[in-house]
Amino acid sequence: MTEPVVVLENVDKIFGEGAEDQVQALQEINLQIEQNDFVSLIGPSGCGKSTLLRVVGDLIQPSSGDTTINGKSARQARLDQDYGIVFQAATLYDWRTVAKNVQLPLELMQFSRSEKDRRTQAMLELVELTDFAAHFPWQLSGGMQQRVAIARALSFEPSILLMDEPFGALDEMTRERLNLELLNIWRKTGTTVIFVTHSITEAVFLSTRVIVMSARPGRITADIAIDLPQPRNSETRSNVRFFELETEVRDALRISEGGREVSQVSA
Amino acid sequence: MSESRQRIWAPLLILVALVILWETLVTAFNIQQFLLPKPSAILGNLAQVVVTGGTASADESGAERSLNNRFFVVLPGRLTPEVEEHLQSARWLEFPIGGRSVHVVRGSNLTPILAASWFTLKEALGGMAMGTLAGVAVALATTRWTASREALLPFAIAANSMPIIAFAPIMNNWFGIDNPFSKMAIVTVMIFFPIMINTLRGLISVDSRSLELMHSYAAGDSEILFKLRIPNALPSLFSGLKVAGALAMIGAIVGEYFGGPRIALGVFITQEAALFRFASAWAAIIVACLIGITIYLVILLAERLALPWHPTFRK
Asked: What pTM did the predictor assign?
């Protein structure tokens, strides 16, 4: 049995200083993620799912607890360039063409020129944007920009792909198409994906596991294995099991949010 | 296409209309030339159109015998030897019309004004180069060492609120009245702040996601500087340069008002005004204005070439 890719033990994150300003963003997070898992983090706004993603990616340091990524510290994993990241906004650099944006991590990691070109070419093919290599980001639609961001995140073959609501700003049609594309890419590359989302349907459709979180303090309230058959496609959405799992996640979310509603009423 | 043509022609038409209005009003109300010279009198210092030949008609018999810096001059009949020689030596163009000939000649003040403009332009450009270098350098340094930003910025703001022109006599004293470096120093001090603050804003106001992205690639400070901060700062550097371009000519000319070599544009304007030759002072002002516009256009062109991706140029 191979070692888990991500191991979080008793991770706490407290923002702010002084008793009144303190916000407990994460509380006692224990989580293991196996190689080639596709894990979605879902929960109400402010439940700390983006914070959790950033703790894994070493963009935020936890207040306490241990983070082990690929058998080393999160910092070492970041320095070893184990992470590819995709945000809700494509975050492309305006002054770089599509191809140059995809190449950015390759430049920083000092890939050889021929290797850079080869990988850029391959990535653009993967996200079907070969014809747009010389375009600037503003000439692309939101969905295309997000595909460039995915190509950029995958270009250096990171072992972990961190995605923070990558399709949150897109329309439903584009989102569903990109969901399928992402699954395709995930199958081809074999990376481990941690995916933050607001959408129950998206979480169930994409994931092998859905982690449900509650807000203030942010903690894990449910961990649901998604046993839908692979590969998933548009027919998956009409599978009876798909609806059962959706309901299961929805109920888990309701319970985790319910607690908050009660506390608000009593307050 | 028609829209871009309109963008050129509309202001040009307004300009021509204004000049005609100016000429008519000054003539109609008989305004004294030391209050406001006619545009034709101003233009006459730079170029003249002289019509010669034919015989003097009855009403032309009393016409002037000299060129006298006017824009449009009719000299029928015989020419004096001096005028004849001037038409030869200053000629740009000559063509016949109905038995007379039309000479387009260099205005008598064009050469001194151009020479003075070139001298002052060099001061302005020298000051711009130094001020831009200094401004960018300080902006880079304060980005690199965040602590120095808090320590230095209040001084930069205080320095900017000082009337920099008041430094002119001191700079003249430091570097010598005839030394172009004294004016370059004034321009440098003048444009330092707009360049520095604009560049700094561009270097600092980097999208936090873009920074996180760089950190996730384990990029170092210098890589973040060259691949993210500097490209991000270029548009605001160009905004700063556009402001600086206008300030540079102002700084150099006003600096020269406090003294400078005879060949400088500011000195030329003060001297002509002191001698009541307002039309030629105005001519020099117009040339200074044209130079300012040219500097601006050159910066605009450079911006367009350097930032083809910028939203301003999206079609």
From this structure: 0.81
